[in-house]
């Protein structure tokens, strides 16, 4: 069973690129973030033609999350309770015996911005909503946090700034304390690899990235883990199609 997460940075403008990736990688379940589209704008038929059904929580022009599945999925939760004003940022479905949640966590803008405490409050609500990571459960998405200094291209320069603060990392540790395991990091404890690179300044080719796209799993999921990889190839243009500024992250379960 191949699971993936991907911030597509606008699904309608990236649809052909996403279909290219689906055809090449053949994942079973995919969490998408930053759709920038409402449900009535979602390309259900085009994705069905590619072999995927969708559970969608959309929003006009901003945010938006979806779960693509090969087999029928049972919707479980749409939206983070109590955080509706923050936008369409969470959806959960049950598929293949796994409870699969994808999230698009708030950015926060900067530590001085009023969105920063709102980001921390959103994470607090997420942690409370999720509870203990029991059974077969996966939590994936764009977390907009570098969990550790190893996950930043330049912790010395960026430490204490947005994505790199102790307050944000404390929330990630609380998730870990609740049993949510960072599957990529668990398999690659020393790897300095990134999932997001700014479009500007040649950041991708210069290696100026951040690892902010994560797949977390319960202990039961970790016991099934075969591989976990960042699909850097799909941060590059394909057949003239422009990539998102995020790469997909993929895990395989036995």
What can you tell me about this protein's structure?
The mean pLDDT is 98. Helix content is 26%, strand content 26%. The chain has one domain: 4-Layer Sandwich (Deoxyribonuclease I, Chain A). It has 8 helices and 14 strands. Helix 1 (11-25) links the parallel strand 1 (2-7) and strand 2. It starts with a strand and ends with a strand. With 254 residues, the chain is of the alpha+beta class. The strands form 3 sheets. The protein has a 6-stranded mixed sheet with strand order 3-4-2-1-14-13. It has helices spanning 11-25, 44-49, 115-130, 155-158, 166-177, 183-187, 203-206, 219-222; strands spanning 2-7, 29-33, 53-57, 65-69, 74-78, 90-95, 98-104, 137-142, 181-182, 196-197, 209-210, 213-217, 225-230, 249-253. The radius of gyration is 17 Å and the shape is globular.
What is the helix content? 25-40%
- How many structural domains can be distinguished in the coordinates? 1
Assess the beta-strand content as a share of residues. Answer: 25-35%
In the CATH hierarchy, the third-tier topology is known as: Deoxyribonuclease I, Chain A
How many beta-strand elements?
14
Total number of helices: 8
The low-pLDDT segments are none
Highest CATH level, the class: Alpha Beta
Order of helices and strands: EHEHEEEEEHEHHEHEHEEHEE
The CATH architecture designation is: 4-Layer Sandwich
Mean pLDDT: 98
Radius of gyration: 17 Å
